[in-house]
Amino acid sequence: MQKLKFILVLLLFSLNYNSTLAQTPILNAVNNYKPGIYKSFEEFVNNAPSLPFDYSISEKKRGYGALNMGGSVVYHRIGISKKKGKEIGTVYGFSDGQFIYLSPFEPELGPKTEFSKIKYLAPVSYYEDRDCNIVNGSRACSLSRRLISLTNGEIGRLTKKGLREILSIEPDLLEKFNNDPDRNKKLFAYYVSFMERQKSKSQ
């Protein structure tokens, strides 16, 4: 999704939080999600997984940055056999009842399929992934701070420039961000502050 379009989605959300909340069952089920595997985006937002979930969950850390020194993203796998995963086919994500894990590009399920945990659930939710490319014959990865609209499933990226535009409707928060010497490392924290402020205003 283009950055400008996603920013407009966020600004519209800030004016229509209650309407979005009413139309999105998963937002009303915080920490009480129905356990199961989501076969589609619609199953996810409706808190209505069509397949049961009775599997163990393991973590897999994958680094990014030069020599993987920039940090790591934690992915999650489920303890399912290749045969069972193939029977299920493509999936969108799953919930263990406490957390939500997504792989929005709908891979075929298997023991090595990796999912990202949603770190902040809202009408425009946040999770982390990696972007990897081949540079000079070597694979180079960077952190990708991703936003997903629960209205239509479209995915965008949270960038410093985009966050400044989002914060423009909260001048004091924007000023704080601009004056913060560690702002590049705190995009997620400022995003949450913005979203929580919009939520509070709608109540």
Keywords:
203 residues, alpha+beta, four-stranded antiparallel beta sheet, three-stranded antiparallel beta sheet, 7 helices, 9 strands, flat
Structural class category: alpha+beta
User: In oligomeric terms, what are we looking at?
Assistant: single chain
- Show unreliable segments: none
Q: Rough shape?
A: flat
What percentage of residues falls in helices of 4 or more residues?
A: 25-40%
What is the ordering of alpha helices and beta strands?
Answer: HHEHEEHEEEEEEHHH
- The radius of gyration is 18 Å
**Annotation field: number of helices:** 7
**How would a crystallographer describe the biggest sheet?**
4 strands, antiparallel
Sheet-strand content, in percent, reads 25-35%
Rounded mean pLDDT is 87
For the largest beta sheet, what order do the strands appear in spatially?
A: 1-4-5-6
Tally of DSSP β-strands: 9
The rounded distance between the terminal residues' Cα atoms is 30 Å
Task: Describe it.
The structure is a single chain. The protein is flat, with a radius of gyration of 18 Å. The mean pLDDT is 87. It is an alpha+beta fold. It is built from 7 helices and 9 strands. Helix 1 runs parallel beside helix 5 and helix 5 runs parallel beside helix 7 (187-202).
Write the layout of secondary structure elements.
Elements: H1 3-15, H2 17-23, E1 36-38, H3 41-45, E2 57-64, E3 71-78, H4 82-88, E4 93-95, E5 100-102, E6 116-117, E7 124-135, E8 138-149, E9 155-157, H5 160-167, H6 171-178, H7 187-202
Antiparallel strand pairs: 1-4, 2-3, 4-5, 5-6, 7-8, 8-9
Helix pairs in contact: 1-5, 5-7
